[in-house]
Amino acid sequence: MSFFEIVVLPNGDIALKRGNDTDEPLIRISFSREVEGFSDESKIDLAKVMIEAGIDLFDKMDLDILQSAEEENNFSGTSRLIH
């Protein structure tokens, strides 16, 4: 099972990465200078909302793709697991 963490990078970007992974982050969020005054905690809270929205959208898109494939190819019993 993979665990994910949201971290503040040295340059101030917020990133989503796999726990204990030193590779490139899966998602990187850069904020404009207008939000430079926000605390890291506020930036992380905003990043969490953005990441959750992205996962929800991906989940919906993935579901739409699976439904189309089932209709076209009669696939059934396809399971999906998103963490």
Written overview of the protein:
- It is a single chain.
- Strand 2 and strand 3 (27-29) form a beta hairpin.
- The protein has one domain (4-73).
- The N and C termini lie close together (9 Å).
- It is α+β, with helices and mostly antiparallel strands.
- The chain has one helix and three strands.
- Strands 1-2-3 form a three-stranded antiparallel β-sheet, with helices on one face.
- It has one helix at residues 40-73, and strands at residues 4-8, 14-18, 27-29.
Q: Which strand-content bin applies to the residues?
A: 15-25%
State the end-to-end distance: 9 Å
Q: Output the number of helix runs.
A: 1
Q: Please tell me what the overall shape is.
A: globular
User: In total, how many beta strands?
Assistant: 3
Number of domains: 1
Low-confidence spans: pLDDT under 50, at least 5 residues?
none
Global Rg: 17 Å
Q: Brief description of this entry?
A:
Helix content is 41%, strand content 16%. With 83 residues, it is α+β, with helices and mostly antiparallel strands.
Task: Draw up the topology in text.
Elements: E1 4-8, E2 14-18, E3 27-29, H1 40-73
Antiparallel strand pairs: 1-2, 2-3
Search tags:
83 residues, alpha+beta, three-stranded antiparallel β-sheet, 1 helix, 41% helix, globular
